[in-house]
Amino acid sequence: MAIRLELLTEDPKEIELIQRYWAMNESGQFLEKVNALSEFLQLPQGVTLAAFIRQRCRAFDENQMCPECDEWVEIRNRSQAWKSPLRSTTLCTRCLEERDALAREAEKTKAAQLEVFLAEHHRKQASRVVDYAAVADAQVLLLLALDRAVTPRLTQAGFTLADCRGLAPRYRDDFLKTLVDAGVLLEDPSKAKPGTYYWVGDEVWQASAQVAYLLMPGTTAADGDEVIRALSERSYTDADGIFSLWLDYAIADVMCYLGDYCKWYGHELAEQEWDEVKSTLRAALQTYSISQLWFVAWKVVKDAASLASHPYYNRVKAAATIPGKIRRSLEKVKRESLELRSWSRPELQPAGTLGMVFGELFGIDEHTSGVSAAARIAHVTGRVCASGVDAELCAPIRELMVNALALDAEASVMLRFAELIRAGYDVGFAVEEIGVFLQRERSGDPCPPTSER
Q: E strands along 79-194, which residues?
């Protein structure tokens, strides 16, 4: 018999059942079928014959030798038995226990090393401070929006990526990475879930979605809440950086709508196609509003859904047309000077705290065109002057535009400005002349401006 048994029961009937279960002929075939043996003894409900026997004996296959110590290998059921002697790749029970013990010891050592590594990593981060006065305007806006999204965890309890759902409709991990790369957020391993950090070879890896972050301390002794209060009083000057952040937010708003609508119709795009669409729409957002591009997305996805029902198309082919359709649609609008319709914000897609910050500080939202958004950001940051205009003209020009907006006279002011420039007058004179006229207009004495110097 090729199966050696180590009995763990003294019941004669159980011993007979065990021996009959493992009995084999000279060719390695089992003598009795399992179905027949199941009727020999009444088994407890829900217990299989193999499990019943395994509890009452240990079976070692004499045809399988342990590759480490040449002992027989223990098997659990008939399917693991071999018909002829061969060197097994499976270890015997003793070698398995020894290997598992070594693995557990190595795991304990690695866990201790990881704990030391993370403690040192956190100590190095916590010893640094940030000069928040030198932090870029766009990163300050992100921090203020993040604070609203995770309050009070940004400055006290720590937060993860999952806590940032309220920050923006999409690409929240990219926004968070911007702040991490800028060095204004620190990782706090003590607040992360077990398993967040782990070894891969000799390197420590992390599950990004589980990493816990906190606001880095500032150069002053102020706590995190005071840092946020100070940042909320920031005067912004970097128009280009802020407008770039607006485009990042706007494309997240548009791509969220497009992604949800594609999912509704079962359109699946490849990663490269998503990147192509994102690039096209981000460029368009410099001109159009978010709500106008929602309309473009709605129309293109509907067209693709209709195309999918045609005899020579399917959903895969139809979805692949979406990037080209968006590009051609925008090209047609520009070429033929068409007016794009605006779509309302979906109920299930809130603007997020970043959108709220832009609305409060710059008066821009999903209905603001890219051109107007850039102008309003430039106005707030004091960058309304063209590069060729002397710095002392910035304030008069800003006052002129404010008065023109108040009197609803933007068009007439621009036309008069162009007329004066064409007549050979410089920018300063034109601004002064029109400014005088607007002041008289507001005071009720509308005398026409002179063209004589």
A: 86-87, 185-187
Q: Strand, coil or helix: what is 257?
A: helix
**Do 25 and 45 touch, CB atoms closer than 8 A?**
no
Task: Please give the mean pLDDT across all residues of the chain.
Answer: 86
- Largest Cα–Cα distance in the chain? 126
Helix (H, G, I), strand (E, B) or coil at 76: coil
Please report, for residues 7, 119, 152, 189, the alpha-carbon distance to residue 198 in angstroms, rounded to integers and kept in the order given. 43, 14, 28, 12
Quickly tell me which residue has 């045609």 as its tokens. Answer: 310
d(CA 153, CA 421): 56
Q: Grade residue 448 by pLDDT with cuts at 50, 70 and 90.
A: very low
pLDDT of 445 > 70? The answer is no
What tokens does 8 get?
A: 């763990």
Nearest CA-CA partner of 186 in 245, 117, 121, 113: 121
pLDDT at 288: 93
Cis-peptide, bond into residue 152, ω within 30° of zero:
yes
For 448, the token pair is 């026409």
Q: Which two tokens stand for residue 410?
A: 């933007």
Rounded to two decimals, the pTM is 0.67
The token duo for 142 is: 């992100």
| 247 Cβ neighbours under 8 A, 6+ residues apart | 282, 285, 286, 370
Kindly report, residue by residue over 37-92, the tens digit of the pLDDT.
Answer: 877 777 777 788 888 888 889 888 888 888 888 788 888 888 888 877 777 777 88
Contact 400, 431 (CB under 8 A): yes
CB 81 within 8 A of CB 3: yes
Q: How far is Cα 97 from Cα 119, in angstroms, rounded to an integer? A: 33
